[in-house]
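Thread: Newbie trying to understand structure tokens

Hi all, I'm a second-year student working on a class project, and my supervisor (Dr. K.) asked me to get a predicted structure for one chain before our next meeting. I've only ever worked with sequences, so writing a 3D structure as a token string is new to me. If someone could post the tokens and maybe explain what I'm looking at, I'd be very grateful. Here's the chain:
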Amino acid sequence: MTSVSNQMLTLSFAPPTRCDPVSQSVVYVKCCKFQRRVLWSEIENLGRSVQGAWAIAGDFNAVINPDERRGSRAVDGTSMEDFAEMIHNSGLIDAGFIDHAPLRLIFPSQDSPKVRPFKFLRMWTMHASFYQLIQRAWAGECSPHSMINVQLKLKKTKQVLKVWNKEMFGNIFCQIQIAEEELEGIDFSMQSAPFEDLSHQFIEREIKTQNFRSSANERAKRATISSIRNAVGESISSSREIKAKAVKFFEDLFQVEPISFDADFLQAIPQVITQLDNDSLLAPPLMEEVKAVAFSMPRDGAAGPNGFSAAFYATCWDIISDDILKASRDLMDGIAISRAFTLNLICLIPKSPSTACFADFRPISLCNFAMRRGCPSSSHLLFADDILLFTNARIRSTEHTLGFQKAREEIIYLGAPLCTGRIKSSAFQFLVDKVDRRTSGWAGRLISQASRVTLVRHVLSSLPIHIMLAMHIPRQVIDKMERSFSNFFWGWADENRKLHWLAWKKIARPIEEGGLGIRRLRDVMEAHCFKLVWTVKYGDPSSPSANLMKSKHVRDIHAIAQVPSSSNLSPLWKKVRSLFPILSESIQWTVGNGDLNFWSDN
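---
Reply by user tm_fold:
Sure, no problem. This is what the structure looks like when written as tokens:
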């Protein structure tokens, strides 16, 4: 027993399969909000001293998501924020909501370090000897078969690059880690008071270095499936069994079943492809076409199983183009494709924060370059849960006919909440949670101030943009998100939040106006609304969003501002409608074809 208080008990033990200790804390939290805050501070302090794996379980009397609570009583937003901040500051990971159910913790044995797969690094292309190196590695013929020839040359180039990288750069991953640790030390020295002695700075720097490594380990653990449930609900923790179950699950999922159909049915399909079109489709690809495909792919996009990204093909095109063209023509001629080109990496993306089985992951296919060239659609996998059906029927008949059940909770589809009636602020709580999860993964207290500005400006501020294009986000939600931005920007000192020397509205200004170039979310949302206003009245007539708005709310395009207000209008359209007079004051007219209304368009 390492610590005990009136709300928490902590035990530490050493499993025989692990070299580091394991700590287990159990809590029974008070109902009073102020007493809970005392425990939150205690947990944060414990998180700074605990070594090895650490788990906390018990009755927290708090939630981080309104969906975790049942009942008609509203959830206290302040309590949720306090709870979420404690999880963030302690470096914990929410395992999901489990209520009145037995828990079993499994600590898997620590496997031996895995061999790091090859990955082409774009920084290599900046070295003076890189181009000559590729020329020597690619020279000569390895096989009379074009696709096998490319495969063997890539393998040869990979081995040459590995040796060359060690000679020229050494272990760049260790160098990056050392540089990051030095940067953390410099950042701490700059933020420390002048009268602090060097020994104190050294101690604090070592603590920050350990925290940095701990944070990196936590991110690695997030990306690792350490436990999964099989088809009968049994938990599996052995890495070998997890791999075997994953292969079996996705083999069964992608298994092609034989189908039979009446060949006469094809005669009912009209023939729309002319002979000229058919000849064009069957024509051998030209060098310009293959090059256009290679150069159109993102240079820094994810590489396939062979480790070569599009940056390699674009940079070394003059060297490898002839072999790539021959392989592409053989591919189009129907020659059997080498297995090395058909291999894919299946990246598993969690569908929700808590995953229990392989069905909770969305597989994304990462193909090699040849497959992307020959079959661009192979990187997209379709599943039944990606289909949205619209029906005009009663709920009971739909449930009886299709076997569907009515959702008891709000549904997030394509990143946006689906709900009927008035949209509450709680429907957008997932945006606030998404920001908190991002900042928790970055461990904001260990990042320099300049890095925080960059992350807020380019990452955090971009999270709600796709929602703003389709829906009106309530101001309360925007305020919560910007409060999280501010807390992340200023960081933390010990267990206390650092002093916010300036209000967020003064920081989130253009650099020319004395700010840091961060955009306020309410300004971004208003800008999107202005864009929609322009698209509805003056923009592209084929725009789906504009046509939807006009067909639903507008009868006379020249009198949009005069449309009477109604409680049935969507929040987004109410905002758009209020901006029409402002937009009209900023418009200048030019001589056109006379398509206007004299009384309203003035």
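A couple of things are worth pointing out once you decode it. The longest strand covers residues 22-28. The CA atoms of residues 290 and 325 lie 7 Å apart. Feel free to ask follow-ups in this thread.
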